[in-house]
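User: Can you predict the 3D structure for this chain?
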Amino acid sequence: MLLVNTCGFIGDAKEESIQAVLSAAERKKSGTVGKLLVFGCLSQRYMSQLPDLIPEVDGWFGARDLAPLVRALGCDPSGYPVRHRTDSHAYAYLKISEGCDRRCSYCAIPFIRGVHKSVPMEDLVKEAEYLAGTGVKELILIAQDTTYYGLDLYHKRSLAALIRKLSLIDGSGYIIPTLPTSLKMCWMKWLRIRRSASIWIFRFSTSQTRCFP
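Assistant: Here is the predicted structure, written as structure tokens:
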């Protein structure tokens, strides 16, 4: 079985994804691959067109179709997925939410990833504890819009509250939330938390501005 993850955001990524799927389809024709499954953003965006264009694929799954994909792999999708690291880096990414509620005319993210959906804090703490136990010292919080975290679950912006919970995990060294350049300095002070065992670095999406305690 061959599982191909795809991207459908920009032209180059779409072309690369299509070439990867076509290459996998050729491997299936030659007998080196049994079952071919494709998932991700490209599938989500062009689900109505791709099955007819590449019939060699046995199953198409969108970016939000995790449970059906897991079932197609013969596994039980119930419960929060367990993360397994395949590298030994001292840093790791922690996705705190998915999707976006901003309908910018130039961006396809809301149509691919859907509306903003936060991951519950308790699930993020469990994943961060696992990562810290594997030796991660730098935790990078990512999302399409980190500043929206918690609005759907807790009815208020909860990024600072999440960072406070993550800061209690033994073994953590750096926590880096990616933030938009439009964030005001007062927000940085609001988010910053002083702890003797940790250093907080705020990485911006399009600038090198950093804030140290």
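The longest helix spans residues 11-30. Residues 184-190, 193-213 have pLDDT under 50 and may be disordered.
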